[in-house]
Amino acid sequence: MSKFDLTGRKALITGGATGIGAGTAQALAVAGAAVAILDINEAAGHATANELRATGATASFVKLDVCSDAGWEAAIPQVVADLGGLDILINNAGIEISSLLIDQSADDLRRMCDVNIVGTALGIKHGFRAMKPGGAAGQGGAIVNIASVAATIPFPGIGGYSATKSAVDRITRIAAVESGKLGYGVRVNCVFPGLVPTAMGSKLAVDMAEIGLWPSAEAAVGDVIGLTPLGRLGEVADMADVIVFLCSDAARFITGTGLSVDGGMGS
Q1: Count of domains in the chain?
Q2: Is 184 among the catalytic positions?
């Protein structure tokens, strides 16, 4: 059996209805995992779960606002019941609101902190509670948090977003240490994706033009590619495959690290 095989694993993906989250759900399913898609977008979440089931995968959808502690309290038992356990948790849900720092809205900053930082921290909290010995699943496992190349480079126009993704990196490393010291049996890592032309990534390029940092969205994308040694934007599969790796036995001695998946942009 391949070390990348996830047959028998049970995976939860927040923000799994679209974009990198949906691609990750598909990649985990292809590797053999049963998957639960958690998202605030019910229509897209059900559609993605249905698409996965049509391929023969085990997939379910649970509505979740990642900022809600009570929401997590209700969602985790449902996922464990639907899948028969839980040993992979992907904290993918996130939002990006572009702004020059001189124009930054306090409400926008709080919203990004809520989703990107609080949402990730609650995912770790409830993932640990379910996966540690004596938990509802109790078999240990792996948590992967989605940060961003924005946490590693000073890219203009996304100061608030960059700060929240830097926090995801810090939380990841502390969670890994706590899990190890307290015997939870859960590895915790994060990835730093480069720019991927999902709906969120494409909007970012448009935003850069609208706030006056680039003459057009195309120019912004061109400069990002120019900053990337591999000479292209990322693809959803580039991110999803690395996440599968971090969840697999091939990464069994990796915890507390952040893995750049950015074509060298952050180097």
Answers
A1: 2
A2: no
Q: Which of 72, 161, 184, 192 is catalytic?
A: 161
- Tell me how far CA of residue 262 lies from CA of 72, 112, 225, 266, in angstroms: 31, 22, 10, 7
Helix, strand, coil share (%) of the chain residues, nearest 5: 50, 15, 35
236 conformational bin, left if phi > 0, alpha if psi -120 to 50, beta if neither: alpha
Residues 229 and 239 in one domain: no
Number of residues written out for the chain: 267
Together in a domain, 242 and 166 = yes
**4 is a domain residue:** no
Q: Is the pTM of this model over 0.90?
A: yes
* Beta bridge pairs of residue 13: 37, 90
Burial class (CB in 10 A: 0-12, 13-18, 19+), 159: middle
What amino acid is encoded at 78 in this protein? Answer: Q
Reported confidence tier of residue 1, pLDDT bands at 50, 70, 90: low
Q: Are residues 19 and 150 located together in one domain of the fold? A: yes
Q: What pLDDT sits at residue 3?
A: 87
User: CA angle 95-100-105, nearest 5°?
Assistant: 60
What sign results for the dihedral spanned by CA atoms 67, 189, 24, 220?
Answer: positive
* CATH classification at residue 188: 3.40.50.720
Q: Is residue 264 domain-resident?
A: no
Mean pLDDT across the chain, nearest whole number?
A: 97
Show the domain range for 62. 10-194+234-259
Percent of the chain with pLDDT over 90: 98
Task: Give, as one character, the DSSP assignment of residue 139.
Answer: S
